[in-house]
Amino acid sequence: MYDFAIVGGGIVGLSTGMALGKRYPCAKILVLEKESRWAFHQTGNNSGVIHSGVYYKPGSFKAKFCHDGSRSMVQFCQEHGIQSEVCGKVIVACNSQEIPRLENLYSRGLENGIEVKRITAEEVKEVEPHVSCVAGIKVYSTGIANYKQVCLKYAEIIQHQGGELRLNTKVEKIVKSGKNQVLETNNGTFETRFVINCAGLHSDRIAKKSNVDPQAKIVPFRGEYYELIPEKRHLVKTLIYPVPNPDFPFLGVHFTRMIDGSVHAGPNAVLSLKREGYKKTDFDLGDFAEVMTFPGFWKLAAKHADEGIQEIIRSFSKAAFTKSLQKLIPEVRSEDLVPCHAGVRAQALMNDGKLVDDFLIIHGQNSVHVCNAPSPAATSSIEIGKAIVEQIPEQSHLLTAINV
C-alpha cells in the first residue's frame, strides 16, 4: 500500500515526488515510469533553457511559476553542482513593424517583475555581434542548464527520502478499490491512496483511465533542430530570439547556446504523427487517427493554415529553415547546419480549437492530473511540484492515514 503514486518520470513527476517527500516524510511514495530511464521524453529533449517568464500573461500560472522557478532552479543547480549558467538572452526586432510587439514584450516583462532593458541595434551587437536587427531587449535572468542531470538529482533525493522508483513500468489500467486506487501495470500491481498524473504526452489518457475528464486532448507537435558546426559556434554568444508572432502559439526559430557549448537552431513546429514521434517517419495509426478525428485539431489548423504550411516547408526544406535563421544572423549558411535531435511537445487542445495556454491541473477523486505542463515546465518544476502538493491537504482521510 502506497500513500502516493506518481505516474510519469519526467521533470514534473520527479519534482512532485521530491516535494511530497519533503512535506510528508512518513508517506510511502511511488514513482512509475514506463521508459528505461528518467526524463526520456519532453524533459530529455528540450532546449535546456532556464526561462525568465518574459512572454507570459501577467497573473497566469506560467508567469508566477516561471518567475519563482527560474530562481529556485538556478539555486538548485548551484547547490548540487549541476551544470548551469545565467547567460541572459536578447529578443530582437528585425524590422520596424516588429517594434510595437517588442515594446509589448518589454512592458510584459516589467509587469512580471523581470529585469529587462531596451537596447539599440548597436547595443545588441555588443552582446551578439553577428545579429541583424533594428532594436532589441536584453533579458538578464535567462539561463541554461542540464535538465537530465536535474532529473537524476531529483530521483536521487526521492530515494534518500525513502521513496520508491520504478522504471520500465507502464500503467495500463486504474481500478478503484474502496477509497483507494489500484494501478495495474506491465510490471505488477500497486495500490495507492492517491494518484498524481504527470504523464506528459499521455496525461489525458491516464486521466481517462482514472475516470477523470481531462477537459482537453494532447496533440503532439514535433520541434526539429539544427546544430551549428563547431567552426561556426562563435556566431552565437548567448541566446537569440525573434519577436514572436502573438497570433501563433510557438516562438519561432531561434539560437540557443547549450550548456555543453554547442549551439542549436530551431525549432520549427509540425504535427507529429505519433505521440512519441521524434522522426518524420515515425507513425502510429491510433495516435494519428485520434488527432484526425478530433474537431479541435481542424479548427486550430484552419486558424493557423498559413503559418502551419510554412512550418511544414521548413521541416522538409533545409534552405527554407536556413532562410528563417538568416533573418537573425545573415552569415549563417546551409552548410553551417547539421540536423540534431528533435523534441515532441505535448500540447493540450480544447474541442473548440483553442490551445490551453497555461498549466492545466484537474482534480479527481483521490487524484490530481497535470493535463498541460508546457514550457516553462522544466524551469518551473520545483515550484510546480510544490503547488501540486499544496493542493493535496483537501483530502482529509488521506492525511489521517499518512499521519497514523
TrEMBL record:
Residues 3-390 form the FAD dependent oxidoreductase domain. GO terms for molecular function: (S)-2-hydroxyglutarate dehydrogenase activity. SUPFAM superfamilies: FAD/NAD(P)-binding domain. GO terms for cellular component: cytoplasm. Keywords: FAD, Flavoprotein, Oxidoreductase. Its EC number is 1.1.3.-. Transmembrane segments: none annotated. It holds the Pfam family DAO. Its cofactor is FAD. Signal peptide: none annotated. PANTHER family: L-2-HYDROXYGLUTARATE DEHYDROGENASE, MITOCHONDRIAL (PTHR43104:SF2). Belongs to the L2HGDH family. This is L-2-hydroxyglutarate oxidase. The lineage of its organism: Bacteria, Bacillati, Cyanobacteriota, Cyanophyceae, Nostocales. The gene is lhgO.
